[in-house]
Recover the amino acids of this structure.
């Protein structure tokens, strides 16, 4: 393998990883946009989504098989279930806290995260669950570059979901309302916008996207467990921050950038892979300290 | 943009304002202990109980109580950062680690006397406090939480990756200290060491609470801009909270390392930080007796729930959520908040 | 949860059988069992507990117990594979004045308990944990009946040399056990004059190893050695093969679980594992497998024979000592002189480790491990 092929391969792998990060980062950024809450439980919704997808697949695989069609249906089921879970969490845990000090609501979010994690821990006994599918190992060999069919389907699905979201936000009435709520909640209320409904829709979509990413990750990597949301939650948050929290395009961009950074970061000479996460966290801290608005974030989003 | 932890200069929300009269018996009990006479009596009883405990209980109870007292020190330290200064720290275990590793490395690898190593550990922790606190204090509170989380993980990964910290296996054979010929090595010896530390941490917390610095923290927590207008240097006093909190954490870590005789990076994980935070929030942020109660609950609770196996963690998480929703200022809330 | 229920039911049953037999007899001999019954390693812990329970029942039934009819009673201490929790569990066992402790799975969690048991002077048979870091931490009251990381590194060296490997990539998970094994293998491998093409870390719970796989492929390694546990190992094996890595893949004894096949699927075919002797490959274990399956409705896991031996060894030492005196039991344990047990003969070095290497090489074939004969 020449350095050039290796570079291309890393680019492709970075894109795949970035697609996951971007899908999860979108949920962070949307929720932050409308209620200014850093939803600590978001990574655990990804994990819950993986388990829901697993459950969904075992329901439908009898009829549809465990190939891409079955997984796709399972993913939709998981999105629906976890989307509703997100709405319930917002209603039960976050809604009563909206007027409380920021410290309290952050700790509430942390508590929700712990509840989801430990519920999954109790149900699975801390065991890894094998996510069995009928996906093959096949793919395209372009010279030395290997691109598996799974990767192609995965990136395409993530792309379609993101485009759909972008259209929803920019073209529909709900999307406009969402953007308006992000800017000024009080004013929206006065103008007769049902702010609670907009928040609920936001949670539904954000959680649904995390569930989509979780199901796809389960199917792609082949195993799921209760703690799988922690690391990706942190990294997706990093991605959202790099892109500029509150900005939807920024989250997608941040996800891709982080995926690429990690893919190439493993190859930095003289620094072993044991420092890889130190590298990621350092980027997060540097961005937060030096440019808290990220690449595409606007500073006025943070007023209020 | 202004820091959003103090949105508008409205009067602070306070539980005592909303509940002017203590109606329930346990509330009356809490109020009773707030007055000086009964409080002295309670303090004396607790100290007495702590002293006789090892003689009337098993070694297991002693070890668990030692653990609880360690958490009292750690929680009182985090309470200064979170409860007094209102800064959410999700990487507090990093300070705990700095104390433990500094003493571990100096005594075990360089043969430095334990008592000589302590000041080095404290200085190291203070520096860590400044490094973490310095650049982050201007951040909004949720960013601060994530940055401290990141720092905590960086410290843990560094301990895991370096040779001098013993890698993932950590350090073992950390020598036991001796004091004027008394070799501190049995479980009961360490128990008494932690009794002393916990009492010192209690006294120091109380003094800080009543001091000028304590009032400055209160002011900044409630209204940063107004505090600044009154001539309080908010960066300096926030930094002071970090450094003092770091020193408390390091003291816990110093004695934790010699007590176990071995330390490894797993002891300083994010979960550890969350557990300490949980104790502070559960008990009542800013309220010393509340925080102590919280420390005992997070240590004794899982031990008492041992029969429930993995469910105990879930029970704990649900409890925390319920506390946040129904009693957001903790079991024993601070009135001055 | 079902595990938890099993544990309660089985403990209760054991208690019942003990109490019905031992009524109005000598007080029981209480032995501690220190295994992870919660957390990601709970399967191994449960399996080890089952095997020990089987051993205790056999002793209680056949010989009417120990020391003139005293029954063995087991108490569990959940180490959760976590250092702090295992110290709590250990001091709980020490407070209950157990005569001896059998167990120890995760090396990192076992290490600090050595001090607890040492201070309380409780004989400790370490069944599975085998990091070389445990050796200097042993105050003298513990014996290790699993071969250590040194032996495994030697097995790995011989195996890879036998395969004609020149350049090796070693991957660990940054925990005490896998880092120790990785370092030992690296040292043995370079000392023998070979090249280590890559020496890598992954984090527990990380799912995407694509960058790592590219690096390994780019490094020109002929073989990959994964030194950590099966859960992430399964993912690595899968991604290595998915991306067309053609070389030899071997995994250490933390990955010798049948579950590796669940996670890695077809990619686990032809993967090699270094393993302590598991029941399937022990001629003496036929009866044990049958009994285990009859009682627990599942096949014994990789550490069941060692756990069974550990309890039997402890009982034997108590019998030989003729009392529950700790010093006498410790002396008896150390005097084990190579008699045959389920997993082979046991005798100890002056460092209280197993005197011989018990490692065998397995190969994944048809979705299960088979004994590999070069």
């Amino acid at each position: 393998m020449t350095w050039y092929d290796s570079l291309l391969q890393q680019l492709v792998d970075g894109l795949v990883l970035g697609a996951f990060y971007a899908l999860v980062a979108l949920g962070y950024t949307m929720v932050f946009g409308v209620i200014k809450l850093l939803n600590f439980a978001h990574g655990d919704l990804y994990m819950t989504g993986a388990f829901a997808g697993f459950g969904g697949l075992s329901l439908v695989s009898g009829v549809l098989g465990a190939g891409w069609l079955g997984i796709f249906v399972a993913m939709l089921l998981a999105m629906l279930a976890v989307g509703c879970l997100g709405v319930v969490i917002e209603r039960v845990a976050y809604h009563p806290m909206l007027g409380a000090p920021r410290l309290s609501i952050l700790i509430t979010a942390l508590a929700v995260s712990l509840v989801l994690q430990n519920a999954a821990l109790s149900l699975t006994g801390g065991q890894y669950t094998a996510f069995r599918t009928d996906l093959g190992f096949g793919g395209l060999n372009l010279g030395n570059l290997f691109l598996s069919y799974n990767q192609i389907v995965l990136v395409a699905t993530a792309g379609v979901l993101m485009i759909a979201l972008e259209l929803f936000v920019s073209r529909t009435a709900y999307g406009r309302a969402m953007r308006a709520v992000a800017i000024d909640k009080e004013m929206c209320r006065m103008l007769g916008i049902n702010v609670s409904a907009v928040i609920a829709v936001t949670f539904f979509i954000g959680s649904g996207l995390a569930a989509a990413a979780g199901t796809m990750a389960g199917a792609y990597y082949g195993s799921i467990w209760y703690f799988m949301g922690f690391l990706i939650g942190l990294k997706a948050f990093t991605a959202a921050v790099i892109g500029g929290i509150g900005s939807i395009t920024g989250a997608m961009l941040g996800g891709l950038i982080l995926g690429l950074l990690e893919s190439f970061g493993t190859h930095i000479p003289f620094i072993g892979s044991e420092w890889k996460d130190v590298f990621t966290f350092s980027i997060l801290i540097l961005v937060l300290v030096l440019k808290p608005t990220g690449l595409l974030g606007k500073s006025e989003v943070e007023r209020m | 943009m202004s820091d959003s932890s103090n949105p508008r200069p409205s009067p602070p929300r306070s539980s005592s304002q909303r509940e002017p009269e203590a109606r329930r018996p346990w509330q009356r009990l809490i109020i009773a202990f707030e007055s000086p006479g009964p409080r002295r009596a309670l303090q004396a009883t607790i100290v007495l109980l702590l002293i006789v405990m090892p003689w009337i209980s098993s070694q297991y109870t002693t070890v668990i109580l030692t653990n609880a007292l360690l958490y009292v020190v750690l929680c009182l330290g985090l309470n200064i950062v979170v409860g007094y200064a209102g800064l959410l720290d999700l990487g507090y275990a990093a300070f705990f680690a700095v104390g433990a590793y500094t003493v571990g490395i100096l005594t075990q690898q360089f043969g430095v006397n334990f008592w000589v190593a302590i000041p080095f550990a404290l200085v190291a922790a203070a520096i860590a406090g400044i490094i973490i606190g310095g650049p982050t204090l201007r951040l909004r509170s949720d960013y601060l939480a994530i940055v401290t989380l990141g720092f905590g993980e960086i410290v843990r990964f560094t301990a895991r990756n370096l040779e001098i910290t013993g890698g993932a296996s950590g350090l073992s054979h950390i020598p036991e200290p001796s004091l004027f010929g008394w070799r501190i090595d049995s479980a009961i010896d360490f128990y008494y060491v932690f009794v002393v530390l916990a009492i010192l941490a209690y006294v120091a917390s109380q003094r800080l609470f009543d001091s000028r610095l304590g009032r400055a923290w209160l002011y900044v927590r409630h209204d940063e801009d107004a505090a600044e207008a009154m001539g309080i240097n908010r960066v300096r006093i926030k930094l002071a909270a970090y450094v003092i909190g770091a020193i408390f954490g390091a003291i816990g870590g110093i004695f934790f390392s010699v007590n176990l005789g071995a330390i490894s990076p797993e002891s300083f994980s994010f979960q550890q930080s969350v557990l300490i935070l949980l104790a502070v929030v559960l008990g009542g942020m800013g309220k010393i007796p509340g925080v102590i109660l919280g420390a005992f609950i997070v240590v004794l609770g899982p031990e008492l729930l041992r029969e429930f196996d993995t469910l105990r963690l879930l029970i704990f998480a649900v409890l925390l959520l319920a506390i946040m929703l129904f009693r957001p200022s903790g079991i024993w809330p601070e009135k001055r908040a | 949860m079902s595990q938890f229920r099993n544990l309660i039911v089985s403990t209760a049953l054991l208690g019942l059988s003990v109490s019905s037999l031992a009524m109005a007899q000598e007080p029981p001999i209480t032995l501690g069992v220190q295994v992870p019954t919660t957390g990601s390693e709970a399967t191994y812990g449960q399996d080890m507990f089952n095997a020990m329970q089987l051993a205790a029942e056999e002793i209680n039934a056949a010989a009417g117990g120990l020391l003139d009819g005293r029954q063995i009673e087991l108490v569990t201490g959940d180490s959760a594979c976590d250092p702090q929790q295992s110290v709590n569990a250990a001091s709980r066992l020490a407070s209950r004045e157990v005569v001896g402790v059998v167990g120890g799975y995760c090396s990192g969690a076992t290490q600090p308990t050595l001090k607890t048991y040492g201070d309380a002077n409780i004989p400790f048979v370490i069944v599975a944990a085998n990091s070389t870091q445990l050796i200097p931490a042993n105050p003298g009251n513990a014996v290790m009946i699993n071969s250590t990381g040194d032996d495994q590194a030697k097995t790995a060296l011989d195996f890879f040399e036998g395969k004609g490997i020149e350049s090796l990539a070693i991957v660990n998970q940054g925990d005490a056990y896998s880092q120790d094994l990785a370092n030992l293998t690296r040292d043995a491998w370079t000392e023998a004059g070979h090249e280590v093409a890559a020496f890598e870390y992954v984090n527990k719970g990380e799912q995407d190893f694509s960058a790592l796989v590219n690096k390994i492929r780019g490094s020109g390694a002929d073989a990959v050695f994964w030194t950590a546990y099966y859960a992430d190992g399964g993912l690595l094996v899968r991604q290595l093969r998915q991306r067309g890595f053609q070389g030899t893949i071997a995994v250490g004894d933390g990955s010798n679980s049948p579950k590796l096949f669940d996670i890695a699927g077809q990619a686990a075919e032809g993967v090699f594992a270094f393993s302590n002797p598991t029941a399937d490959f022990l001629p003496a274990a036929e009866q044990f497998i049958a009994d285990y399956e009859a009682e627990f409705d599942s096949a014994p896991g990789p550490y069941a024979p060692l756990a069974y031996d550990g309890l039997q060894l402890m009982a034997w030492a108590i019998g030989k000592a003729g009392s529950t005196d700790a010093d006498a039991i410790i002396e008896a344990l150390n005097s084990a002189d190579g008699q045959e047990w389920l997993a082979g003969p046991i005798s100890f070095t002056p460092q209280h480790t197993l005197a011989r290497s018990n490692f065998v090489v397995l190969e994944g074939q048809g979705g299960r491990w088979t004994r590999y004969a070069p």
